[in-house]
Write a structure and sequence with these properties.
The structure holds 3 protein chains of 3 kinds. By secondary structure, chain A is α/β, with parallel strands linked by helices. Helix content of chain A is about 25%, strand content about 25%. By secondary structure, chain B is an alpha/beta fold. A 4-stranded parallel β-sheet of chain B has the order 2-1-3-4, sandwiched between helices. In chain B, α12 links the parallel β7 and β8. The chains are: A alpha/beta, B alpha/beta, C alpha/beta.
């Protein structure tokens, strides 16, 4: 194994071409007059649902109406009234029958309706994937325009795991027919806090 | 300015009218054009088949025939592209470099060098324009649908000067016809299928004539049209630009 | 499917026997190309993005050794075990050893074309390890015992009725059921069981960041994440060329990748793996398998810029009408045709010729690989190395002879036309492949050269 490493690196050094410089950072022309509206439009196109709310009470009311009698877990203390208590440190396999997981994201991206979520916002990495439905809370002011802006925000932050999530899980593998809910959540709701 | 007329081998042998139209058109536009009679072929069929190393004879003959002219003009995008990309000569590299700079396909010569703004031509028919790949993507005769760039088209610019001509739109404006040189027989099944699909696109949109800047594409499409006993005909763009 | 002795032309011939099916395959993939166009046209700076991606990847290839060392150092600091595999065999052995050491004999795998290239599934199966592919398309071809035909849409060649039949046989769905929603739900149920029970998961790697030691895995289904976050062992397999220098380069690549592949703005999940979960083992295998050889070829090395989006396949008129299996290699289409000859020039000598050199592929490539130019150059190499069919070499010599002399050319042309006119059966027969489905051109009464001599006064 050590031999292969040395061999491969030696061959690379021998074969790689003359140094070609990295380009300067790209200046994006893409611009959205209303990033929030763009985010919501794209989210809808990709099978997600955007819900404007004034505060956490609004989220609670929405949950009570739309997800009655379901197993709900949340990483947000503000939603303890509508979610399970003491769920955090169980074996991730036990989340298999979670109907709805509600977490928050650092920010959203207008160009593709993606949400940046790191593991500290998930409690356990499996949570946003294993649930049947996912709900994510963001602040309206935390929607940036493009992925370049996103990576400026992310900068050199340290995380063990982070992900962009854009809408519910999906596949078009069967004759290009789009189906929601392949393996991850079948639906995604994004609560946009004013 | 002197122009040497470069006529692809298959136009010389099978479609002389396209060459005659090219010659006539250039003369009408006041160009001093001659056809060097010792020309044969640009060598592309061999080069594209992997035998570029056998093309020196063609290259030498080409340089011999065309070095003296101010411009070399040809009614073939793919042949011109081949010369532009691959004309070399260990003995006369300067002349080769010079020719590569001054060789033009017909429509780009008309738009870029002669800067033609009107034509005395009339062709009151429905015409489908086939975008030959090498001319379009290689010589930049027209914008490509894959790119996010401003549209333009040199052949179209010229066709718009022809009185009465009605251009049809296509579902796939720049899909390859499937000729591809020796590909047309080496991969016969796919080649024919590609040709049939192109023909169907034109027919579905009501074309009476299919035109292009490359006779090789048209030869392939014509072969399919005639096998289908279709009334639709192919015409090299020079013939339409020269039509009365 | 035994394709060992059939080349692209023969396989395409078979594929084209069912014209309606070819139409269906062609239109389905053209639809994906059209979606890509729509997405690209929505980004005004699309061409600048491509240029940036191209330059970043050029930089990567020119500094690959340093980036790999930097990546390995950072990954190790993060708790990832890094392995190096010189070839496919070594890669497979490393995977197997990791599994054996953990006492694992069944695992799940999300999409990794690298593992296809290495024939990992077959190797593991022969060594008593069960692998279940969790990407829906891959699971389908796995049940069908076929390789994937497209690197992003593995079963694009299969109709929903055929998939329905497969699921009926293997998953117990009702006979005749072919509704995609129903079938997907059945697959979800079937694969969910594997996610919660398997202790080891293999994923691919879309991008590996040298600066931080993290790697990114993009899926629409969420299967890579479902596998990795529930497994005790996560093995990530990547080609050495998948490195990018900095984390913020992902802004460029993630904007290009999915738009080029399917026309979506981004995949549902773009997961950045940096450290294993507490209690989990994370392994990353860096694989050469011919890449350093390709790196030594000045004309072909930038094929290593590929980010495996398959835009070139979707736009290729030949791929759409011959299907991925006609290329008899893990990665098909235009990019496959410039990668494969590097691995085995004899076996893949046919691929660079499976093209009209139309150039559409190079235009859609998000990292600006000059695919069509490399196809031309591979043809020269293959002929020089002696892998062109003998008949062709002879025909080309005849052509050279004829075309180098004006006199011989004129006489040959005249003779050819004479035969076509007066003895058409000598030309219009089964030996003439053109004539199978096309009429020969009509014979004019004289060539242009002859006309010119007669009609144009010499000045």
């Amino acid at each position: 194994m050590t031999n292969s490493r040395a061999e491969i690196l030696a061959r690379i050094l021998q074969n790689q071409p003359e140094l070609s410089p990295l380009p300067a950072d790209l200046v994006t022309v893409t611009h959205y007059d209303n990033p929030i509206e763009n985010f919501k439009t794209i989210l809808s196109n990709i099978g997600g649902l955007a819900v404007n709310v004034l505060d956490y009470q609004g989220i609670q009311d929405y949950i009570k109406t739309h997800f009655p009698d379901q197993r709900i877990v949340s990483t947000l203390a503000e939603l303890s009234a509508v979610s399970e208590q003491g769920w955090e440190n169980l074996d991730p396999h036990s989340y298999e029958n979670v109907d709805l997981a509600i977490i928050r994201a650092h920010f959203g991206v207008a160009e593709n309706a993606a949400l940046w979520i790191t593991e500290d916002l998930m409690h356990q990495r499996a949570v946003p994937f294993i649930c049947q439905q996912l709900a994510v809370v963001i602040n309206a002011k935390d929607i940036v325009e493009t992925l370049h802006d996103a990576y400026v925000n992310i900068a050199d932050s340290v995380y063990g795991f982070g992900t962009f999530i854009a809408g519910p899980s999906k596949t078009a593998d069967i004759e290009q027919s789009l189906v929601l809910g392949a393996h991850g959540p079948k639906g995604m709701t994004v609560f946009i806090l004013d | 300015m002197t122009v040497g007329l470069f006529i692809p081998c298959y136009i010389d042998q099978f479609y002389p009218n396209a060459a005659i139209a090219t010659l006539t058109l250039l003369k009408k536009l006041g160009v001093d054009v001659k056809y060097p009679s010792r020309q044969t072929c640009c060598g592309q069929p061999m080069a594209n088949s992997g035998f570029e190393h056998l093309t020196q004879g063609c290259n030498d003959l080409f340089i011999d025939n065309f070095a003296e002219f101010d411009y070399v003009v040809s009614p073939s995008g793919s042949c011109v592209l081949h010369i532009k990309d691959h004309l070399h000569s260990p003995k006369e590299e300067n002349k080769a470099v010079d020719i590569r700079k001054k060789v033009y396909e017909l429509t780009e010569f008309l738009t870029d060098v002669l800067q033609v703004e009107k034509l005395d031509a009339r062709f009151p028919h429905k015409v489908g324009l086939h975008q030959s790949c090498h001319g379009q993507r290689g010589l930049m005769l027209a914008q490509m649908t894959e790119l996010v760039k401003a549209p333009f088209s040199k052949p179209l610019h010229l066709l718009n000067m022809v009185e009465g001509l009605e251009l049809i739109t296509l579902s796939r404006p720049d899909e390859c016809c499937g000729f591809g040189g020796t590909f047309c027989v080496a991969e016969e099944a796919v080649s024919v299928k590609m040709g049939k699909d192109r023909v169907a696109d034109h027919l579905n949109h009501g074309a009476e004539y299919i035109t292009a800047a490359d006779m090789s594409c048209l030869m392939h499409l014509e072969g399919i049209l005639r096998r289908q006993k279709s009334n639709v005909k192919v015409l090299h763009i020079a013939e339409i630009l020269n039509a009365q | 499917m035994n394709t060992a002795f059939k080349d692209h032309s023969e396989l395409s011939d078979l594929f084209n026997k069912d014209e309606a099916r070819v139409d269906w395959h062609d239109e389905t993939l053209w639809f994906v190309r059209a979606k890509r166009d729509k997405a690209a046209h929505g980004i005004p700076e699309w061409e600048s993005l491509r240029e940036a991606a191209s330059q970043i990847k050029n930089n990567v290839l020119s500094n690959l050794q340093d980036y790999l060392v930097e990546f390995e150092e950072n990954a190790k600091k993060n708790g990832v075990t890094v392995h190096w595999a010189a070839d496919a065999a070594e890669h497979n052995q490393i995977v197997h050893k990791i599994l054996k050491d953990q006492g694992v004999n069944r695992l799940i795998k999300s999409k990794s074309m690298l593992t296809e290239e290495c024939h990992l599934n077959e190797y593991l199966k022969n060594n008593g390890v069960e692998v279940i592919d969790t990407d829906l398309g891959e699971r389908i071809v796995q049940l069908a015992e076929e390789p994937p035909s497209h690197i992003v849409l593995p079963c694009i060649h299969k109709k929903k009725e055929e998939i329905g039949d497969l699921f009926h046989e293997h998953l117990g769905t009702p006979a005749g059921m072919s509704d995609p929603v129903f079938l997907t739900a059945a697959a979800r149920k079937h694969l969910r069981e594997t996610f919660v029970t398997r202790k080891a998961a293999i994923t691919g790697v879309n991008f590996a960041v040298a600066e931080t030691g993290e790697f990114v895995v993009c899926t629409n289904e969420g299967n890579a994440d479902m596998g990795a976050h529930l497994a005790d062992v996560h093995i990530a397999c990547m080609g050495i060329e998948k490195i990018i220098p900095k984390r913020n380069n992902l802004g460029v690549f993630l904007r290009l990748l999915t738009r080029s592949a399917t026309g979506q703005p981004i995949t549902t999940y773009s997961s950045h793996f940096r450290k294993p979960r507490p209690g989990q083992q994370m392994h990353l295998i860096l694989v050469d398998n011919g890449r350093t050889t390709q790196l030594s070829r000045p004309d072909f090395r930038n094929s290593l810029k590929c980010i495996r989006c398959a835009a070139c396949m979707n736009t290729c008129p030949v791929y759409r009408r011959s299907g991925g299996h006609s290329y008899h290699t893990a990665i098909a289409g235009p990019i496959g045709s410039i990668l494969a000859p590097n691995l085995d020039m004899k076996e893949y000598a046919d691929l660079p010729f499976a093209s009209t050199l139309c150039g559409s592929c190079s235009n859609v490539c998000p990292v600006k690989i000059n695919i069509h130019e490399q196809l031309y150059k591979w043809r020269q190499v293959i002929v020089k190395e002696g892998y062109a069919p003998a008949k062709k070499a002879i025909a080309m010599k005849v052509m050279e002879f004829t075309l180098s002399s004006p006199l011989i050319y004129k006489n040959a042309g005249k003779a050819g036309r004479w035969f076509m006119k007066h003895a058409p059966f000598t030309v219009n027969n089964k030996l003439n492949l053109w004539y199978d489905h096309r009429e020969m051109p009509e014979v004019p009464k004289e060539s242009f050269g002859e006309w010119y001599n007669k009609n144009v006064k010499n000045d």
